[in-house]
Amino acid sequence: MSTDPTADIMHDRKAWLDRAKTLSEALPFMRQFSDETLVIKFGGHAMESDDLARLFARDVVLLKQVGINPVVVHGGGPQIDAMLKRLDITTPRVDGLRFTDEATVEVVEMILAGKINKQIVSAINEAGGFAVGLSGKDGHLIRARKLRRTVKDPESNIERVLDLGFVGEPAEITPHVLDVFRASDVIPVVAPVGMGPAGETYNINADTAAGAIAAATNSRRLLMLTDVAGVLDKSGNLIPEMTAAQVKAYIADGTISGGMIPKVETCLDAVEKGVDAAVILDGRVPHAILLELFTPHGVGTLIKAG
Ligand SMILES: Nc1ncnc2c1ncn2[C@@H]1O[C@H](COP(=O)(O)OP(=O)(O)O)[C@@H](O)[C@H]1O
Ligand SMILES: CC(=O)N[C@@H](CCC(=O)OP(=O)(O)O)C(=O)O
Fold first, then answer.
1. Ligand 1 center to residue 67 CA distance, Å?
2. Where do the structural domains in the chain lie, given as residue ranges?
3. Fewest Cβ atoms closer than 10 Å to its Cβ: which of 97, 209, 245, 267?
């Protein structure tokens, strides 16, 4: 506070004017996405800070408030890791996917569809929204099947099918329940667990689930919030944009590895199936979603078809 009240008033006035200008500048972006579905994947790493989870929830409520239709699909890998450790269950990962036996799938469902899903629903509701949590089992949203993944032995060059237990992939998405919410003020929050043909539970990578839902709902954008600035090159610099060919080359030469592999593969698949663009962005940055959607400055790595 200065000792000059007139100077204080002028300073406040300028600050408010700047704020009004920012809002006004966001209008064309808001109009661009008005009535459109946006699938937002909220990764387990990105939600580790309570403050960031609160800001995320606020941003999602804002999207709904301005006439956009956000669908949240969440992960929870680190939170599943923590619970498995407490229970003394060890599960290896292959290319970012967790080997999931019968005991593990039970824990996965409890953490994803129970603990994490309700945490996000509560955060959105506390921010003034009207969130409803569901898993892929609800309303047949995700009918799953066992994931078939082949790997090539680098020495013999022989391909073999990898058995990851109860790791599934979406076989069919029935977006009916999301269509019902679309016409209302409800914000759906989806846990990536699906049901197989015999009623078995499948653990689905959250990126894969988000991509499949984005494609099935004709989502304009797929936003993947994670714990890195985006896809980084070998020197650690952000790659602002990638084509399909570049993605494949980066996986082949090891630039992209681990959990980033299902992420970029999902983005490619989604844009090939009609999603306009997929963006991998830093969920640790406050208001990452608003920056990405409502300003001319994209903040992560954009993946487009072609
Ligand atoms: N080229 C790359 N650029 C950025 N991150 C990468 C890259 N290759 C591998 N990664 C790893 O992928 C991780 C993101 O995937 P993951 O841990 O599954 O995130 P989330 O929990 O958000 O789904 C990063 O934290 C990083 O360790
Ligand atoms: C098959 C598989 O790996 N499923 C994941 C599901 C959660 C997830 O994907 O969480 P993040 O988005 O936080 O990584 C898992 O068990 O960790």
1. 32
2. 30-88+100-135+182-192+204-303
3. 245
